[in-house]
Amino acid sequence: MDKKDNRRSEGRERSDNGLQLIIGRNPVTEALKSGKLIDTIFVDPDAKGSVSNIVRLAKEKGVVVKQARGQKLDRMSGGASHQGVAAMIACTAYSTVDEMLETARQKGEEPFLIICDEIEDPHNLGAIIRTAETAGAHGVIIPERRSASLNSTVYKTSAGAVSWMPVARVKNLAACIDELKKQGVWIYGTDGSGEDYRSVSMKGAMALVIGSEGFGMGRLIKDKCDFLLSLPMKGRINSLNASVAAGIFMYEAVRQRGE
């Protein structure tokens, strides 16, 4: 592609690898100013000039900013001229934890929340959101860092459930859990060292923590859990896909809460 073609492609929205992107400094700036649903801004730390203004504006709008070197941006933008900046479009707006708790109160129900601790695979996050919606959860909570976010892959995998299931993105998951505890919400972690999930009551206000695909819950998050739940493993494999395990735990909560 020659330079002229590069200039024509600058600022176009792309959907490579399931990511809907806006590329180029001016297009990203205008998208931020217009209030477009932006999930994440990717910035080359070596880029100079107006990039600092984009970072400032993104932080004012509450948009997450992540560093991405030129080669990564090249791959994301399909070789188009990105000028060191790309913005990933969100498939829906984020909610807040307070809004989730208020929804539960308005329905006259005990809060039922799902916390995803560093679920980085968007297919897993989408599947968890889909199951959470069908199970009647009041919301899904994810951290800002080291987590998949609400991109088009999550939207597709959730079968559109993200349009109905509130998702909150918080800066500090541990602090969020502390606040939930103050609100009377019990925290249930999922870990191989826990009790058989069928023997633990999940009838009250609860938040179910699903750990990352490879490592489970982080130590700090695990230590903050009031209960640890485990699944009986009868075969030679001693673990399940995160979204599959999440579905089993969620529907045990549904069963108990319906009694």
Can you walk through the features of this model?
The structure is a single chain. The protein has helices spanning 3-9, 25-34, 51-60, 70-76, 97-107, 122-134, 152-157, 173-182, 219-224, 242-257, and strands at 13-14, 21-23, 38-43, 64-67, 85-89, 112-116, 139-143, 167-170, 186-196, 206-210, 227-230. By secondary structure, the chain is of the alpha/beta class. The strands form 2 sheets. The protein has a 6-stranded parallel β-sheet with strand order 8-7-6-10-9-11, sandwiched between helices. A 5-stranded mixed β-sheet has the order 1-2-5-3-4. The longest helix has 16 residues, at 242-257. The relative contact order is 0.13.
Summarize the structure.
The chain has 259 residues and is of the alpha/beta class. It contains ten helices and eleven strands.
Q: Which features would summarize this protein structure in a list?
A:
single chain, 259 residues, alpha/beta, 5-stranded mixed sheet
